Amino acid sequence: MGTTYLIVGIDPGIKVGYAAIDLNGELVGAGCTKQKSHDKIIELIQEIGIPSLIATDVHPAPAFVKKISASIGSKLYVPRKSISKEKKRMIGKHIFNPHIRDAYAATIKAYRSYANRFRRIEKKYPNNAEKYKHLILKGVAVGKISI
Fold it and tell me: What is the pTM of this model?
């Protein structure tokens, strides 16, 4: 298992797309597999790093994504409304595989929803920013964090 904390987007379907960004918003891993096994997807994610948050691009969240989130013990980010195809194309214009692009769009949408909090953490706790961001994504209140 890697030591990078991740926001992971998952796009289930006949093929399962996944994309992982670090807590600075950089793409660190992505792929697409025909194996629709929860365990296989979790294994692929954990090879990249430690999932802090699982994200989906659709509302409501698919059962497949909910199960992975629960299995990993990560919170689930679900957009208020499904991300449009046009928006996903704009966000992932450099990604040609549609399953990976949809998963990537989910990660970016989730990242942006936490961006202001992340900036405050980086200013206040520059030496522990990654750990603090991870804990925030796990649902720990900032006042309860002690590292």
Answer: 0.93
